[in-house]
Amino acid sequence: MEYQAYFRCFRGCPGSYSLYQVIYTCPHCGGLLEVHHELEPLQKRLGGSWRKLMVERISSTQWPYGSGVWAMKEWVVPDLRDENVVSMYEGNSNLFWAERLGKQIGVSDLWVKLCGNSHTGSFKDLGMTVLVSVVKQMMADGSPVKAVAAASTGDTSAALAAYAAAAGIPAIVFLPQNKVSPAQLIQPIANGAHVLALDTDFDGCMEIVKELTKDNSIYLANSMNSLRVEGQKTVGVEIVRQFDWEVPDWIIMPVGNLGNISALYKGLKLLMDLGITDKMPRLVAAQAAKANPLFRSAQQGFQKKISIEAESTSASAIQIGNPVSYDKAVQALNATNGLVEQATEDELANAAAVADRTGMYTCPHTGVALAALFKLVDRGEIKSTDRVIVISTAHGLKFTPFKVAYHQSVLDEVVSRHANPPVELPADVDLVREAIASRLGS
Questions:
Q1: Is residue 232 part of a domain?
Q2: Quick one: what percent of the chain has pLDDT higher than 70?
Q3: Residue 229 lies in a domain
């Protein structure tokens, strides 16, 4: 069966373009492209048959189908040759039943999708496996591409560097100086990428990389490249599969450049188009209050895109003031009766701490999504019986300085209500016994 996918203009301009062509925006209007899959061939296979195939492939040893992304190969890049797939068996991340946290806030069916339990510690792996695999095939077929490059707030650069290293492709990453965590900085360095720390913010890095990648020998790996969306959309499919193909009521995720929420919608829409599901969850885009252009636009009914100069926030990966995928995100939110919420530094830090005390280990961006959840529950938007999924986009271990500063009560604009610093004592058993008794209330 012949499945076909190609680039086309998201705004509807005429023309289609090969996925192996070096192209990022529409030649007619300059807008973003999207990967379009011809639905008719896909729909010839019944929904039940697709479900059975995906379940059989998950975690199998048959290359490359054990990957949570490449189990859906026909829905991602159908004509990619298997020998060019670059995969660390990404995806298949677990759903954490947040039972204790749910009881505390009055939501009985609360789950956290731990996308940080991945090769480089973030959901960015889902998109990067696709982009780097396509580039590998392009280079094998004689493309002039010699390297891949991306601007990053940390996680994108880590994923790009790791997958490029696995493929043997040079990687160049542009990071804003002193605005990423040490763990995020060392990841691309360790994987051999050419790391450039620029004296600007993410948006400034993005302008530089867009200019440099006009040379077709350097391939742009940021989320304005729609290949990334094809991998990231699989998280929505994976969530539904993990609930035996039942669609949850809400999915909440932190957003910055907005590619992730548009990808989430695209995967969920595909399930409906193939007759596998018959409804959509409501999507919630959560932003840090110091980097909230989508929230501001939503307050005005999405009448226009708003760009700002993002301020410094602990949620550094979403410290973006001029999001590339604005139009796609608005489509996703409008189509799902979605919402946009924001979180202050105090709200995101304390939300992360509350979650940690119930067994999680949350990054600050997940803290943003959790803070949005708490607000929506308090306002009565989310009901006690709703099934709610919070997408955790990265592992908390990548943000150790944030965790340490919180428990030392030194985070700016944050009152650390759940700080738990170590108690320093001399090696005296009576003093230790007294300290324990005090903690246990006995």
A1: no
A2: 100
A3: no
Domain count, the chain: 1
Partner residues linked to 253 by β-bridges: 285
Which pLDDT score is estimated for 332?
A: 97
Residue type, 382: I
Interatomic CA distance for residues 162 and 331, integer angstroms? 32
What CATH number did the domain enclosing 328 receive?
3.40.50.1100
What are the structure tokens assigned to 188, written together? 């691309």
Q: What is the pLDDT of residues 16-73, one digit of tens each?
A: 999 999 999 999 999 999 999 999 999 999 999 999 999 999 878 899 999 999 999 9
Question: Is the whole model's pTM more than 0.85, yes or no?
Answer: yes
**Per the structure block, which two tokens stand in for 384?**
């006690």
> Residue 329 is part of which domain span?
96-121+250-407
Cα separation, 167 vs 378, in Å, equals 48
Report the DSSP beta bridge partners of residue 366. none
Q: What is the mean pLDDT of the chain?
A: 95
Residue with tokens 């301020």: 311
Q: For residues 126, 127, 129 and 132, what is the CA-based torsion angle, rounded to 10 degrees?
A: -170
Q: Determine the Cα–Cα distance for residues 68 and 54; give it in Å rounded to an integer.
A: 9
385 belongs to a structural domain: yes
- Check residue 1 and give its pLDDT: 57
Residue 236 in domain:
no
Q: With beta carbons less than 8 A apart as the criterion, state whether 48 and 63 touch.
A: no
- Model pLDDT for residues 262-319, shown as the tens digit of each residue: 999 999 999 999 999 999 999 999 999 999 999 999 999 999 999 999 999 999 989 9
Residue 341's DSSP bridge partners are: 286
Torsion of CA 378, 379, 381, 382, to 10 degrees: 0
